[in-house]
Structures are given as C-alpha cells and as structure tokens.
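Lay summary. Proteins are chains of building blocks that fold into shapes, and those shapes determine what they do. In this project we predict the shape from the chain. Here is one chain we studied, written as its sequence of building blocks.
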Amino acid sequence: FFETAVTAADELAAALAAIDVDYRGKDTGCVPLARIAKPAGDAFAGRASWPKVELGERQRVTRGIDRTPYGGKADLSAVLRGASDGERLYLDIEVTDDVRATPYDAVHEKRLIWSNDALQMGFDRADGTGLKELNFSAPPAGEVFFTLANDPIREDLIRFKAHAEGSVTDYRVVIPWKALWSDFTAGDEARVKFCLAVVDNDGDRGNPRLRTYGDRQALQLAPGLYLGGKQSAAYPKLALEKMMDREGVRNAEGAK
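And here is the predicted shape, written in a compact code that computers can read:
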C-alpha cells in the first residue's frame, strides 16, 4: 500500500497500523524502549527482556526493480529491541535474510551502503526540526556506516558491531543521544520520532556489474525513509518502558 497514491493522513494511519507490536500509546503508534540503568558491562546482556517489535510482510515495501513475491520470514524478517539509559540509545536488530549481498563497503562507494543488505534509521524531534538519517551495513571488509543530516552528527561517538551466522545477522548499535542533538537531556526520548528500514539486496546473479539491481525490498516501519521522500511525519514516537514491576505490569512513559 505504500506504493499507491494516498493522502498524508491515509499514509500516517496505514503506517501506525502496520507497527507490529502489542504496545500502543494513548493516541499514536510508538516504538517501546526499555529504560535501563547505565550499564557497568555489556549493555546488551539483558536485551532478551527489552520490549520488541517484529517486522515482516506487513512492513514490506519494494522499489519496483524486482517483483519477486515475498518469501516469508526466511526471505526477510527482523526483530527490533531497544533501550535507553538517558545518555545512550542501544539498538539490537536481528535480521533473517536468505541471501547475503553487500556489494558496497568503506572503499567501494561507501555512500551507497544503504542499498546493501543494510539498516536505515531515521530520527527526528517531535516538532520536525532535527531530521537525521543513519545507514549501517556489514560487508566482509568490515562494518561500515554513514550519516545524513542538515546539521552534523558526531559519528565518532557512535558504536556499531554486527555478527552473522547462517541466515541471521545481529546488528548492535550504540548512539549517544548527544551525537544526534547536542542539547539532548535525559527524558527527551519521549520527544523523539524513529523509523527503521531493513534493506534486502539479494544481488543479481545475471549481471554482477549492476550492483544495485538486487536492492529490491525492505521492511519499513513507517513511510518516509527507504521509500516516502525522506519525511518524518509518519515516524512513530519512542516510548520508555520500565522493566516489569512486582505485579508483572509493564509501565510506560512518554506515550503522549
């Protein structure tokens, strides 16, 4: 449905309806984050308890290059988990992809790594004044990322690692909030909008010189990133969640 001509209101409604997660805000869709203490060791050790968003066919979009039918979760699917300690954002994205294809790296057209098997992330302030885009990929030559923004992003502060085993790649990204906005303060997470696109290249065995041909589909959490004109209007907000309390009830903050 993202490929058809729709009004902005229709596009927003469709995007929010496609967020495949039980958590819902009072009047908008949102992406939940675990609120954690500043970790003394590996921040990702507790990721299994973080709230998750699953991406699959409901979020699939295509670029019109290849109309191959969606092959199900084994073809392309992902699980997003996130947390914040007030200073840093921790994102763990586990991607299942049946064909690994990463033609671009830090040496060969770094600016095009978004069309590899890759992650695209979009961030903005709730008022639309701080749009940022980050792209991550893990070719054999080593992990690589690049950023796009109207004002600088502190790339030197961002940490990114990926581990691939079989058809599954686990991406772990640590982004200090001040790397995005220097005036960010703890608690501002509730005023941040976020979008994720999981890009699937798959390659082109018929003509390997056409490196980008295999860039055929993505799982896009909401319009405006992989497709949609680099607009953040439909991005869902982030929502901090406390860990389970003694009664087993998950409390949420910042859902307004």
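What the prediction tells us: The helical segments are 8-17, 177-180.
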